[in-house]
Amino acid sequence: MILNKANSPKSDGIKVDNITVSLVHEGKPVKLIKWFKDNGCKILEKYPGIYYVSGNKILFPLQLIVSSRLSEKSHYWLKSLTSKMNLETGKCLVLSANSLSDKDDKENADSVIRLALAENPDIFRHFKEVPDMYEALMTLMKPEFDEALSKSKSDSIMSLFNKGRLLEEYAAEELDMPVKQFRKAYKEWLAKKQDKTTSPVS
Q1: How far is residue 50 CA from its own chain's centroid?
Q2: What is the C-alpha to C-alpha distance for residues 113 and 30, in angstroms, rounded to an integer?
Q3: For residue 128, what are the β-bridge partners?
Q4: pTM of whole model > 0.70?
């Protein structure tokens, strides 16, 4: 997937021949499917909600993912790539990510979790109120928290929040401050960061 290519430390660490493009859509993209068919492409629904597209106009192996048709148990990673992820899918996602040991798998899972968090913040806010899930989520983010502790904790937590890696409530709790105070502190941090990037070099 493009996700793998983006996570590779080298510009050609993953060969182009190994790339698969996946297009995720909540409902069936009727117009897009029609365009493929009108242009001589073949479409095969290999699994419920997973369509394989092939043809001369397809540069890379292409999958169309219709998340509303995916199996809840078998394809929760793919179902998380939508703004309509439910609690059960979110739970499976976090617990599964915590069980991974391979470095590449962890990096890919991190990218999926980041997207799921950005698209479904309410789900992760709910996990904050569920002890087991909150612990699992904090375990998942532990390496980044450890890095934050080894530097300036405030600056690192702000950076994680700025990158979309933390919800506001989690960041505020890690810095032991109310959310309202965190918002003010974040604005001040952001202003200082922007000042540094725009300051002329002497």
Answers
A1: 20
A2: 28
A3: none
A4: no
Listed residue (20, 10, 19, 7) closest to 108, CA to CA: 7
Instruction: Put the strands of the sheet holding 50-54 in their side by side order.
Output: 21-25, 62-66, 50-54, 42-47
Instruction: For residue 45, list its beta bridge partners.
Output: 51
Q: How far is CA 51 from the centre of its chain?
A: 22
The stretches in the chain having pLDDT less than 50 are 1-9, 11, 201-202
Tokens of 143: 């390496």
In sequence order, what DSSP letters do the residues of the chain get, joined into one string?
-HHHHHH-SSTTSS-GGG--EEEEESS--HHHHHHHHHTT-EEEEEETTEEEEESTT-SS-EEEEEGGGS-TTT-HHHHTSSTT--HHHHHHHHHHHHT--SHHHHHHHHHHHHHHHHH-HHHHHHHHTSHHHHHHHHHHTHHHHHHHHHS-HHHHHHHHHHTTSS-HHHHHHHTTS-HHHHHHHHHHHHHHHHHHHHSPP-
CB-based contacts of 20, cutoff 8 Å, min separation 6: 1, 60, 61, 62, 63
Q: How far apart are CA 165 and CA 199, in angstroms?
A: 27
Residue 117 sits at the vertex; the CA angle it makes with 50 and 195, to the nearest 5 degrees, is 130
CA-nearest of 183, 119, 174 to 141 is: 174
Count CB atoms within 10 A of the CB of residue 31: 8
